[in-house]
Structure formats: structure tokens, C-alpha cells
Amino acid sequence: MRTMNLGVSDLKVPVVGLGCMRLSGLSLHQANQYLNICLEEGVNFFDHADIYGGGQCEELFGKALPMHADARERIILQSKCGIVPGVMFDFSRAHILSSVEGILRRLGTEYLDVLLLHRPDALMEPEEVAAAFDELYTSGKVRHFGVSNQRPYQMALLQKYVKQPLIANQLQLSLPVSNMIAAGLEANMTSDGAFDRDGGVLDYCRLNQITIQAWSPYQMKEWQGPFIDNPRYEKLNALMAELAEKYGTGKTGIATAWLLRHPAGIQVLPGTMNADRLRQAARASEITLTRPEWYQLYLAAGHILP
Question: Mean pLDDT, to the nearest integer, of 31-35?
Fold first, then answer.
């Protein structure tokens, strides 16, 4: 598995990690087996959030992969906080600190490698976030920090107050859901893809060495399910099947390789609990699509070139 530095940090991470949102659907035995398959494939980066399964995903992970010293050194743990489900977002110092205590307790670890603020909070006071980050960093409970689903100026405002560099921004990105790429390719056009929904976040992250972590990398728009083997994307699936045969993988491998081919240095976080799909995603780091193949897939997903 290829590795990369996460943002400007010296933290080495695999280019493919595992999103653990669906982990609570497994039994303890199944989770233990699956997490060990991940490690065998070099997928030692695990992305959590305190709201996943109401905390059950983190708790199950901590039981399935007990955090004794040797095991903890082998893995990289990331979690997110800030969402109060169905109620509000909360980036207050008190909420961040209490959330991290809960995360650490459920995972059974003394520290997180990375903590992300989960989506934006309209009432964020950056001074409070900075105070929380300082306390967590100084105590050794969190080593690195980042955000999710934030626009450039939201990150810039936060970074003005926070001493620690923001090293990652977790954003939805897949072949069909690639508006941040389309906005650049269709710049100065009147086509739908030219509409900038992200504030130029792709270029901002590249300029500031912030790693984009792609979540839901196999999803269609508006949470309508996976595009792989979906008849709505017949042309895309036919092309992925053709390329899969060429590169000795499956469609999941090709969809992953498409994201990894982008020069932004994207880290892909599939949420699959299927071992075969996980293996395809992990081994996609060995595939380098040609420039024509990358663009052919982009067009087959329904995008246009001006």
C-alpha cells in the first residue's frame, strides 16, 4: 500500500483508509476478522466519528482491536466531533473536550492521531476551538487536527486562531459527485458544472497542503446509493468493467484508482464492510490510470468537457 503525508504533517498514512460508520452492523467476531483483513492489506488508518452508531462503532472497534501497546503503534486513529444529531452543531470548547474524552474511552486508547471538526458550526467562536485544540495537544490526547465539509474561508478563519495546522478536510467525492473538479474544468462557462458549490476548496487545499479525504467514494448524488453496478450509470459501469479486466481488479478498484490518480494527493476512505471491495480499494494504489482513461471515466459518469 502506498503511503503519503497527511497534509503538512509528518504523519504517514495509507492512501486508502477505512471509514468505520457501518462497523456497528458487524458482530464482535466479524469486526475482529474484518479489521485484521484491513491490516493485512495495509489499511491501518481508521476514520471514526462520535455519532457513528451513536458511539457504538467506536466502542465495537475498541473491543475488536484491543489497544495494547503493540496494536496501537500499528494503527492510525482519526475521529470527528461537533455534531449533536438532529439538534445542532457545537464547536464550543466544552463540547470538543467532552467529546474527545468519550471518543478515547470508547476506543480504549489514550490519544487520537487526528481529530476533525465534523462539518461547520455557524456559531463557531474560533478562540474557543483554539483553546480546546491547545489543551488537547498539550495533554497529548490529540496529535493532529483538521475539519470536514468546510469551505476555504471557513478553514482560513479557523486557522487564523488555531496554532496547529489543519492537515485534512474530509469531503464527499466520487466519480459522479465530483463538483469540485467540474467547477474548475467548466470555469467561465454557463453549464451546470460551472457552478461553484465549494468555494474553490480543491485548489485551496492544494495550495495550503491540506489533504482531501474522500468520503462516500462510491456513492451517487443525494445519497441515492452506490453507482457501481447501478443501471443509471450503464456507460460508466461498462467502462469500469473494461478497465478492471485490463488492470486485474474490479469496478471498486477502478473507482478508487480514479480518485488516487488526481494530483491533489487525495486519501480515499471507503466505508465498505465487504472484504473483497476493501481489497480492491487497497490494491488500487498499485494502479495508475492513463490520462485518457481518467477523462473517459469522468465523461462516462455524466460530466462534460467544455
Answer: 98
Rounded-to-integer distance, Cα 193 and Cα 303, Å: 8
Kindly compute the dihedral angle of the four CA atoms of residues 49, 54, 59, 65, in this order, to the nearest 10 degrees. Answer: -50
Instruction: Give yes or no: 52 in active site.
Output: yes
Residues 6+ apart with CB under 8 A from 190: none
Predicted TM-score of the model (pTM):
0.97
Give me the catalytic one of 34, 52, 204, 298.
52
**Helical ranges in 80-213 per DSSP H:** 93-107, 126-139, 152-161, 179-185, 201-207
Going along the chain from its start, the domains and CATH numbers come out as 9-171 (3.20.20.100), 173-306 (3.20.20.100)
C-beta atoms surrounding 104 within 10 Å:
20
CA 143 – CA 15 distance, rounded (Å): 19
β-sheet with 211-215: strand ranges across: 18-19, 45-47, 76-81, 112-117, 142-148, 166-172, 211-215, 267-269
**Distance, CA of 176 to CA of 237 (rounded, Å):** 12
223: pLDDT strictly greater than 90: no
